[in-house]
Amino acid sequence: MKPRILAVDDDERNLALLSAKLDRDGYELATARNGIEALQQVTSFHPDLIIMDVMMPRMDGYEALRHLKSREETRYIPVIMLTGRAEVEDKVLGFEVGAEDYINKPYSLLEVSARVKSLLRMRALQTKLRETEKVAALGEMVDGIAHEIRNPLTAIGGIARRLFEHETEPQHREYAQWIIKSVERLERMIERIDEYKRILVSTLVKGDLNKVVAEATNEIREFIEGQGKTIEVRQNLMPDAPPVNYDYGNMKMALFNILQNSVEAIETNGVITVETAPVADETLIIRITDNGVGMTKEEVRKIFNPFQSTKFEGAGMGLTITYRIIQDHGGEIEVDSAKDKGTVVTVRLHPAR
Question: Whose CB among 15, 39, 263, 284 lies 3.0–4.6 Å from 9's, allowing a Cys bridge?
Answer without folding.
Answer: 15
